[in-house]
């Protein structure tokens, strides 16, 4: 297991990008029902605010440093440089390595349109990839019967990796609730579905290194995301500054 570094109240896994890819595929091959969270600033602040959500992160097998600030703080606290391990980068890397190793994948979440675009790209670029199923659940709470049907369908397909895109914190809570029920390694990758499907563009690498991805997404969806980014990012900086000063 990769070592974790405490950022605010959340344990963030540390290691190289390649370490994460290899460990996730090992978790999938073991079929022991595991889950992986990709933690950005919003998720870390939400875990600080909500004890029940903090427990979801605490119990995850891996919590990747998805956001640039989270990766930088984890590296600073550990004394070792820590690169960002974003869901948007993990998804294509895991698919390519799964195809090479002969491991299987399943996609759960978003819409049929997005899922079809993902399937089309994966078949075009990775013809040997074992893509064993997709499911776009309705945008509402599922009945217990529907939940059982979805879990049964996933387990019948028998994937190594189950990519989940239900939005934060819903996807993380869903994975935690289904540990022990879904026999795969579950990964909450959210927005990565849209990017991989080609329905949303990413900023150039130089802009991502300057932590500008949040500003780009805010520009795309200002009404939905203004509170998350402007208030939550400011709160993260405040909480980290307070913790730092308290420790000096």
UniProtKB/TrEMBL annotation:
Q: Which CDD domains match?
A: Glyco_transf_WecG_TagA (cd06533)
Q: Name one Pfam family in it.
A: Glyco_tran_WecG
Domain of life of the native organism: Bacteria
Q: Which GO terms describe its molecular function?
A: hexosyltransferase activity
This protein's UniProt keywords: Glycosyltransferase, Transferase
Q: Which PANTHER family match?
A: PTHR34136, UDP-N-ACETYL-D-MANNOSAMINURONIC ACID TRANSFERASE
Q: What is this protein called?
A: WecB/TagA/CpsF family glycosyltransferase
